[in-house]
Amino acid sequence: MKRKLLLTIVSVISGIILVNAQCTPSATCLKGICPDTIANLPIAHVSVPYSTYLTVVVPADTTLPYVGSVAIDSLNYTSTTGLPTGFTATPDKSGWKGNTKGCLLISGTPTIAMQGVTYKLTINVTAHAMSLPLSVTYKGYKIFVNDTTLGIKEINAQNGVSFYYNFTDIKIHSNTVINDASIIVNDITGRELMHLSNLNGNDFTINKGRLSNGIYIISLINNRKVIARGKVIIG
Questions:
Q1: In angstroms, rounded to a whole number, what is the distance separating the alpha carbons of residues 101 and 107?
Q2: Where does the pLDDT of residue 15 fall: very low under 50, low under 70, confident under 90, or very high at 90 and above?
Q3: How far apart are CA 202 and CA 198, in angstroms?
Q4: Band (72; pLDDT cuts 50, 70, 90)
Q5: What does the alpha-carbon distance between residue 87 and residue 166 come to, in Å, rounded to a whole number?
Q6: CATH number of 28-146: 3.30.70.600, 2.40.160.20, 3.90.226.10, 2.60.40.10?
Q7: What is residue 211's DSSP assignment?
Q8: Is 156's pLDDT higher than 70?
Q9: For domain 151-234, which CATH number applies: 2.40.50.100, 3.90.1150.10, 3.30.70.270, 2.60.40.3080?
Q10: Side-chain-side CA neighbours of residue 50 (13 Å)
């Protein structure tokens, strides 16, 4: 009986550790929630496992009406509504203390019935200041499930950057926002055919109509370093 109870406890603890290990707060996120609702969440693709996360930076204090500045005890994750069927949102902790960071992993696999649909999410949390609970909602986040009729295929993924192409465009998605980035397109001989600079955000598009049939190497550059490279065949 004791052995069975011990195994049960170990199993539960292991499950908690596994859940908590599923996401790690971003070191570059210094305020609010990252990414914000402008950059938003990556596109999901039918039958392709989806996994992304939000980093939450909990401030040390806040201002309450008629009270003034008070310390934030904690921010507790409650739920996320509007997720595609079968998707889950899992926090690394059930509660984040004031002046700390936490993350929320969103994962699942879209089905063909979800193609072309945009899912608008509402993230619900409870803030505790002076031990008083206050419900807070975050809106504006969305997940778009790509329509398979577009024929988008993933070329490869490196350093959190994925390359996709369809009949008209080559798309580059970064899990994090990039500032002052550049994209260089070379042909198979190394000749530079296209150079896009001063790019900001985490989604970039190249119109394939500017390229004739052939093999191309696409490089995403940030801080003078190639952070990801993909090869695409147009024909």
A1: 20
A2: very low
A3: 13
A4: confident
A5: 25
A6: 2.60.40.10
A7: S
A8: no
A9: 2.60.40.3080
A10: 25
> What pLDDT shows up at residue 7?
31
pLDDT at 98 over 80: yes
What sign does the dihedral 79-80-81-85 (CA atoms) show? negative
What is the Cα–Cα distance from 10 to 111, expressed in whole angstroms?
35
Q: 181: number of CA atoms within 13 Å, CB side?
A: 23
* Joined tokens for residue 230: 């993909």
- What whole-number percentage of the chain has pLDDT above 90? 29
Distance CA(43)–CA(116), nearest Å, equals 11
Residue 16 has pLDDT above 50, yes or no: no
Alpha carbon of residue 95 to chain centroid = 20
Other C-beta atoms lying within 10 Å of the C-beta of residue 5: 9
